[in-house]
Each structure stands twice: as structure tokens, then as C-alpha cells.
Specification:
Distance between the termini: 42 Å
Number of domains: 3
Number of helices: 21
CATH superfamily of the largest domain: Aconitase, domain 3
CATH architecture of the largest domain: 2-Layer Sandwich
Number of strands: 27
Structural class: alpha/beta
Largest sheet: 7 strands, mixed, barrel
CATH topology of the largest domain: Aconitase, domain 3
Strand content: 15-25%
Oligomer: single chain
Strand order of the largest sheet: 21-22-23-24-27-26-25
Helix content: 25-40%
Bound molecules: alpha-methylisocitric acid, iron/sulfur cluster
Length: 644
Amino acid sequence: MGYNIAQKLIKSHLVSGEMVPGTDISIRIDQTLTQDSTGTMAYLQFEAMGIPRVKTEKSVAYIDHNTLQSGFENADDHKYIQTVAKKHGIYYSRPGNGICHQVHLERFGKPGKTLLGSDSHTPTGGGIGMLAIGAGGLDVAVAMGGGAYHLTMPKIKKVTLNGKLGPWVSAKDIILEVLRLLSVKGGVGYIIEYAGEGVKTLSVPERATITNMGAELGATTSVFPSDEITKEFLAAQGRESDWKELLPDEDAKYDDEITIDMSSLSPLAAKPHMPDNVDTVRNIGPIKIDQVFIGSCTNSSYRDMMLTAKILKGKTVHPDISLVIGPGSKQVLNMIAQNGALADMIAAGARILESACGPCIGMGQAPRTNAVSLRTNNRNFEGRSGTASAGVYIVSPETAAVSALTGVLTDPRTFGEAFKIDMPKSFLINDNMIDAPADEGENIEVVRGPNIKPFPVNVKLPEALEGKALIKVGDNITTDHIMPSNAKLLPYRSNIPYLSEFCLVPCDPDFPKRAKEHGGGFIIGGVNYGQGSSREHAALVPLYLGIKAVIAKSFARIHMANLINSGIIPLTFNNEDDYGKISEGDVLLLDNIRENIKEGKPIVLKNKTKNISIPLEVVLSERQRNIILEGGLLNYTKKQSEGK
Ligand code: MIC
Ligand code: SF4
């Protein structure tokens, strides 16, 4: 039997398990990446493991999220990451060098390799045929130490792309169409593999836009073949020797398949406040807009910037609009500076940002009250822009740039003849902002500023757990709800006690106070609880507040892994209707929970307030059960290494 690309990648890295969907497997990790807002925690955890040097082929620490530096905190974190990287064998991409996913694609990604990143958009690397997966910082720390990455063997969904994109329709519209078809939970448990004639019409950055936003499907990752187009991209990056062909076997099998006719697509937009709330730009109509942001790891490549510049050339941004542009990397910024495209943007009135995440994670450029903001990034969750009342529409760079000129949401097909952007034969290569690690790390001093506080570690799971249902939330709660990130909070990513004051505040401002008053308890959630980012803070902060278990209808993949790694039990209802049997404030008891988890016995929750029993499910592998019993992955790893 032949293999598809995802299976080939897994098979060549399989450490344990068999490639049977739904079962626990582990894979060897070739490369890791971290960024600064998850990186501090990941490196603190790596240090706690006591391993002197990373064991991966390449590990890179990027500084791209926390670049606002409104106080000493960000800069302290940067210094800590710079020194810890130098000591332990990790490459360091300095602030200003670009967004981790864009730079990794340009300079380090290799077809056929595995990449684990402490950021949910790590699957961007799937654009060059990598198995690139987002995970919590602790999983990345373990991988840096040479440990395998454990995951549930996903099913493989084939997305066949037929035809060719029409004028002014772009890769962003393809992934928005996939989101429209599958929804934000449609990819859970799957790897999305792209195939079909249409693939050959897409450049690597366009493919990367699609795999990047596969994160919004909840997919484990997404992957494209590595073909002649990949080879040309790598050659233009001076890395042709990194190329390797990766195609599915002719008789490859898939668990599922959908087909998209690219020729029939039109410009699309995801309306507030979910990336799957998709309609055509034309149907939504010419709504008045206040702000446009072109950038983020989804749409900040050379192609996207050149296209934007061509649209803006000789024009003026509409008087009611603030247009902000963030080129994805120093390479891109430097190239558009040299060829004059940047000058066209500036002349048109665009506000140019440094190459970083910026507005995508609420680091500046919060729009006005009740604003409509058009953005080329990937998430439009409520409040993520920094303004709770603003509505964000996710669109392509084409739609964004044209609308910035007209002042209203505009179908770019009305602009005239479409521009064709050729991929450069060679990119501008200058890796002077990437610091190599020291050959010998022993004498390197790691610098720790006062903002770096110890992280919480759980205790062994007790015999029974009792506490109140401290909060009950609905479906699709994101990690941006659980642990919001914005210009005010992101500087505190290495300060869990401070962050705990903001846990779940978008759902209920009193939650942190209540959790503290009651000495912890339970969270009750709906479907797809914890979707979105990989931030393990969304588990560490509840742990700090004494949360013992989260009982939900279902969980998002990375957040569930982060809960387990923190020793918080993710429990699901046997019957979703039982969600109605718990009210906020009810006293809940999990009797014999230690024994039941250990023995894999059925778990029954007693709602003492209502005097009823509710059967629960805990879908854990044996390893995950042991992690929970030990009180988290760090304790478990320590126990393993002590050989007890
Ligand atoms: C995001 O896009 O939400 C982030 C910020 O990049 C997160 C990581 C983080 O919270 O630091 C992600 O996607 O994992
Ligand atoms: Fe940065 Fe936004 Fe990409 Fe997250 S989604 S890595 S915040 S650009």
C-alpha cells in the first residue's frame, strides 16, 4: 500500500506506536522554534531539565511578539532568551529580523524534516513539505532535549485543488474557503494534505499562507508536496541543497477528501469574530472601514508586499482609514526598500511597522471604539485587536489594499487589471541578525531580569478532587479568552502570578478573584474548549489559580496537551446534554480519581449541590495518564530520568 505525504513524514520519524489513527504515537523532532512570548517559559522549563545542549539538528529562538518595549519587561525577556540560547546551542533571531514562521520558511525549513514550534502557526512550514506542528513550550523543551514528541496519530484529509485562481483571488481565499467548508473545529484530529493540479500554480509563500491558517481549522498540521516549485524557492534562498522531493505515492490512501475548484473562488472575508464566519466580499457589501492591517505570519511575504505596493503606487490611503503594513521579515523589508516598493507604500500614506507580529496580537494599533478593521492575519477573535468593541474582518492582501484606498470593503476585482508578481530568482540573503550559539556554553552567564518569575509546578494527583464549578462557559472558547494577550499583558509572559489576575476575564471579570477565594476548583466548558494559540499560559495560569480539572464537551488539541502537561485533568461529558446538569457555583466531587485514572476505570462526577452523578470520559493514553498522576510533564520527566 502506498503512502501519502503526511504518512511518509511520520513514518520516517516514528519512534513509538503504529500509524493507526486515534492511537498514541511519538516522533523524532529535527528542528524546533520558539518565539519570545512562549519562549521564556519554554527555556525556563528546558533549564529545569538540566540538559546542557540541545539535541536537535537545529533549534531557533525568535524575538517577534514582544517588541513594543513599553517598559523593561520585554527587553529583559529578550536578554534572557539571547543568553540562554547562546549557552545551550540555540540560534537566536534578533528583534527586527522578522516573524518566526516567515523567517523559518526563508532560512531554515527543510522538506522532509519535522519541526516543533511553541506557536500554533508553526504549520506554516508545511508550505515547503515539512511536518511542522505547534505545541506548548514544555513539549518543545522536551524535544530540544532530544525527547520524542507524543501525539495522537491523525487522520489524513486530502484537499484536492483543481483549476487556477482567477484575477485578484489569492491563496488567502483558498484557506478561507476551506474554513467555510470545514469550520474552526473541522480539522481537529486531522492533517490536511494538499494535492491536485492547482498545487502547481501556487508559489511557496502562497502555500505557506494556506498551511499557516490550517491552525484555525484545529488541524494537527497541513502539508504541501515538495516539488519543483519548492526547489526553485529554496534555490532562490541559496539553499537548493536543502531540497528533497516529497510526493504522495500513486496509490496513496486518505481518510477523507474534499475538492476545491480554484477557478470558481471569489474574494472572501471572515466576519467578526471567528475565522470560519466566511462570506464573499461582494455579499458582505461596501461596509465602511476604519483600519487596515497588512502583515502577520499569514500574509507578509515578498509577494504580498509587492502586490500591496503595486496597488498603492501613485494613490493615497482614504482619509478615514489608518493603513498599517508590517513586512514579515528583514529580508522582505530590505528587498522592498531596495526596489522602491516601500517608497510607494510610504508615499501613499501607509504606516510602516517593524517586521514583527504587531497588531495581530494586539501589540499596538488597537482600532477605535466600534471600529471595523480589515486585516490579513489569521484570527479575528473578539477583543484580540486590543479594542473589545471592534470587529475584525480577515481578508487577502488584495482586498485589504484596495479597500484601504476606497474606504469601504471592496472586491479587488473592481480595481482594474490584476498585477502579476514574479517570484525573485534570488532573495536578498543576509543572516547577520541571526546569532549562532557558543561552541562551548559552560561559561555563558544567563541574564535574568526581575520580570522572570518561577513557573508553577503541580503536585501528584490526590485520591479525590473536590471544589466548586467556578465558571461555566460556552462553545469555542479560545486561549485569548482564557489568557488574553495584548500590549498590556504580553510583557508578563514570564510572570504567571501577575497574569493570573486576567484569567478568563473576557468571560467573567470576577473569575480570578473567585478562584482565589475558593482555593481553586473546576472550569466547565463547551465544544472545542481552548482553540487558538499554543500558549501554555492558558494552562499554567489556571494551575496557579488552583484549577484541578476542566470538564468540557470537547477540547482543542494543543490546549488539551498543555492541560495534561500541567497536570490538570481534561474531562469530557459522556453525553453532551449533561453539560446542562452543572451550574456555576455547584460543588463537584471526583471521588477515587487517582485510582480511576490509574486503572483506566470509568469516571463519575458527583454534583453534590444537585445530588446527581454525571458520567465523564477521559481520553488519555497510558503515558498521559501517568503524566496526570505525577502532576504534570516536568514531574513525570524527572521521575523517568531518575529511573524510579
Ligand atoms: C497567536 O497568534 O495567538 C500567538 C500569540 O502567536 C500564539 C502564541 C502565544 O500566545 O504566545 C500562538 O499562536 O500560539
Ligand atoms: Fe505572530 Fe500573529 Fe502569527 Fe501569532 S498569528 S505568530 S501573533 S503574526
